[in-house]
Amino acid sequence: MDILNVLPEATFAALDDLLTFISIYDDRARTRAYLRLLRAHRRTIAGAVCVDAGCGMGYFSEELVRLGARRVYAVEANPHLYALASERLAAYPEVVCVHQEIQQFEPEEPVDVLVHEFFGPLLYDEDLHVLEALRFRPRLVLPDRAVLMGGLAWTEQVADETVTPAVVRRLEGALVSGLFDEGDLPLQFPVVRWAFGQAEREVVCDLSGREGDLLYLGLQIYHGDRLICQAGRCPNWPYVWTPRMGDRFRLRFVPAERGAEVHFAWL
């Protein structure tokens, strides 16, 4: 879904975010994975004060109420999503809808559980950095860690009639999401990690001794040791591809006004 006409910048940004979030709900595997995660922690959620950070349309806030949360703060910065969430959650007195950036939100009581989904296909390329600037400290963060994994393939193995090896060679230096119909490719080695309170913003990865002329990257989301979802299984996080141009590359993330800038280079 794309907006094709010219709009004021602020209007365009708000509507673009709305359409992006609607498309996220099309990833039913992602939604089911998050609901399973919440239900696995029902004993902690029951009677707890919870924050649904970037609540979107309020689906997870609604589930937190069903699981017995005493209070749920549904925090959403996008005005359209906030309005939709407010309508959806109006029947639940336990829910307080907050129209605010999560890093500006300051609850008047201790927070037991924080639920979030700020991951991008490259882990840090969306809004994950905002969790480093919270004005409260939750006892439990769901999920609490993720890893951007990598793998190598031979172009001839994955190329098709449209994305041919000749096309791939033209993509030198570019990280391209959803380039191929990946299926469930093996994620072979860690590239960059995140855990709540611990962030890696810049890494150098060495591929020496590994075979393949095409690098792919894919996200894995965990809570503790439990895999919640990953690229190839949850379409919201596609594999990201680039032709291999050496044995070492640098990946760096710089927080920006919207999301984060991704800097990538072969060394």
Mean pLDDT: 93
Q: DSSP strand (E) fraction? A: 25-35%
Q: Which class of secondary structure composition applies to the elements? A: alpha/beta
Note the total helix count: 7
* Distance, first to last CA: 37 Å
User: In sequence order, what are the helices and strands, one letter per element?
Assistant: HHHEHEHEEEEHHEEEEEEEEE
Strand and helix layout:
Layout: H1 9-24, H2 28-40, H3 42-45, E1 49-53, H4 59-66, E2 71-76, H5 79-89, E3 95-99, E4 113-115, E5 140-142, E6 145-153, H6 155-158, H7 165-169, E7 176-177, E8 189-195, E9 198-199, E10 202-206, E11 214-223, E12 226-230, E13 240-243, E14 248-255, E15 260-266
Parallel strand pairs: 1-2, 1-4, 2-3, 4-5
Antiparallel strand pairs: 6-8, 6-11, 7-13, 8-9, 10-14, 11-12, 11-13, 14-15
Please tag this protein with its features.
single chain; 267 residues; alpha/beta; 7-stranded antiparallel β-sheet; 5-stranded parallel β-sheet; 7 helices; 15 strands
Summed up:
Helix content is about 25%, strand content about 30%. It has helices at about 10-25, 30-40, 40-45, 60-65, 80-90, 155-160, 165-170, and strands spanning about 50-55, 70-75, 95-100, 115, 140, 145-155, 175, 190-195, 200, 200-205, 215-225, 225-230, 240-245, 250-255, 260-265.
Protein model, in words:
The radius of gyration is 20 Å and the shape is globular. The protein has helices spanning 9-24, 28-40, 42-45, 59-66, 79-89, 155-158, 165-169, and strands spanning 49-53, 71-76, 95-99, 113-115, 140-142, 145-153, 176-177, 189-195, 198-199, 202-206, 214-223, 226-230, 240-243, 248-255, 260-266. The model has no long low-confidence stretch (mean pLDDT 93). Helices cover 23% and strands 30% of the residues. It starts with 8 loop residues before the first helix and ends with a strand. It is built from seven helices and 15 strands. Strands 6, 7, 8, 9, 11, 12 and 13 form a seven-stranded antiparallel beta sheet that branches. It has a five-stranded parallel beta sheet with strand order 3-2-1-4-5, covered by helices on one side. The protein is an alpha/beta fold.
